[in-house]
Design a protein that fits this description.
Layout lengths: L18 E2 L3 H30 L4 H21 L10 H18 L1 E3 L2 E7 L2 E3 L1 H20 L6 H9 L2 H11 L2 H18 L3 H24 L7 H11 L10 H13 L24 H34 L3 H25 L17 H19 L2 E2 L3
Antiparallel strand pairs: 1-5, 2-3, 3-4
């Protein structure tokens, strides 16, 4: 188990007291998801790319560049002892806030949203930096607080830490999904480090009550016509057909894609919805194209791969050599798990459309780059696990 030291056995070749662990299963799952994502990205975006850019591989080429950079960063980070990043935890939190604020004067607008900064020739989403920075800062903060986290004051300090960043992401970048993910990461990390589950039950009930109240108010104010974008999205979620020409259009097209795929799908590359019917299919709605082309079988297979990925995170977290390493892995696990759940829920109209990508598969250079950096941190924590020298 993690943290124990074992002596060398007589007659054995001296290879040190302990043997380092490396999770090849985790690495294989990540590489598989990346490869599958590139295939599906090309299948989904080739028509749109050819029509608008004259190159059917336009999106694929850009994603390959980000993937290669991400893999290089993952290898570098995986070979750096994870405690090295503890020194920069507070700096990461501050830099996250500064990067988000820089969007106001220097942000790049695309698809009606101002969420990107141009850095070294690449478009970077500060929200992705904020997710990684929050994981590092909370892991360090919780470790420094120790048993104080069990008190009401300590609990609230950790719980309120991500709130300023989440509010900035929500208000400045108008990216509510990333704001929810940042809060979700914090709550999960707090959950695994705090033994008082009653607080989380009350927190969950309060959250459900607030959401239910918001939906009730919006539904009753539907006739006023002053609901704003998010209010209209909630009404479109409740009755997408009534908003088929507006906010419900993308959701309906995604549901048509899922329904037409059946059990085994139409076949790779045979989607009809990607031919101009489903807006931004390569981004938030790529899961619906997976369902259409590969059917229920393909969709479940991909979800199983994500479940296996979460399982490997849990194995590493449970065997990490210290609390800091375990919390880093839990933070990454929360980031990916919440994002997958929200994406699938949006595509299937289980929750209102929030505009959230599917990790490793949707188009997005910033997302895949920082996800792979997070995977590098997890691999580094895994290398800190020592196995008995057999």
């Amino acid at each position: 188990m993690a943290g124990r030291r074992y002596g060398n056995r007589p007659g054995r070749k001296n290879r040190g007291q302990q043997e380092a662990f490396f999770d090849y299963t985790l690495l294989f799952i990540v590489l598989f998801l990346l490869g599958f994502g590139l295939v599906m990205l090309y299948s989904t975006s080739s028509y749109d790319a050819s029509l608008n850019y004259g190159d059917s591989a336009y999106f694929l080429k850009k994603q390959i560049v980000s993937t290669v950079l991400g893999l290089a960063a993952m290898i570098v980070v995986a070979n750096i002892p994870y405690h090295f990043w503890e020194k920069f935890a507070a700096l990461g939190y501050v830099v996250s806030i500064i990067m988000i604020l820089l969007i106001i004067p220097f942000g790049i607008e695309a698809n009606g949203a101002k969420r990107w900064l141009r850095i070294a020739g690449m478009s970077i989403q500060p929200a992705e930096i904020a997710k990684l920075g929050m994981i590092l800062f909370l892991a360090s903060l919780i470790c420094r607080m120790g048993r104080k986290i069990r008190s009401g004051k300590g609990f609230m300090i950790v719980l309120m830490t991500p709130v300023p960043v989440s509010l900035l992401v929500w208000k400045i970048t108008e990216n509510m999904s990333s704001a929810i993910i940042i809060l979700g990461i914090a709550i999960l990390m707090l959950f695994v480090s705090s033994p008082d589950y009653k607080r989380f039950i009350l927190l969950g009930l309060a959250g459900v009550a607030v959401c239910a109240l918001a939906v009730f108010i919006i539904v009753n104010a539907a006739d006023s016509g002053n609901l704003g974008v998010r209010g209209t999205r909630i009404l479109a979620w409740l009755d997408p057909e009534a908003y088929a020409s507006g906010k419900g259009f993308q959701t309906l097209q995604a549901l048509y894609a899922i329904g037409s795929g059946g059990i085994l799908g139409k076949g790779l590359g045979q989607s009809m919805q990607k031919l101009g019917f489903l807006p931004e299919a390569q981004n938030d709605m790529i899961f619906s194209i997976i369902c259409e082309e590969l059917g229920l079988f393909g969709a479940i297979s991909i979800l199983l791969m994500f479940i296996l990925l979460i399982w490997r995170f849990m194995v590493i977290a449970n065997n990490a050599s210290d609390l800091f390493g375990a919390l880093l892995v839990v933070g990454v696990m929360g980031h990916i798990a919440i994002q997958v759940i929200l994406n699938v829920a949006v595509v299937t109209n289980t929750i209102p459309n929030t505009g959230i990508s599917l990790p490793f598969i949707s188009y997005g250079g910033s997302s895949v780059l920082f996800l792979l950096i997070e995977i590098g941190i997890v691999l580094s924590v895994g290398k800190g696990i020592r196995l008995k020298d057999l």
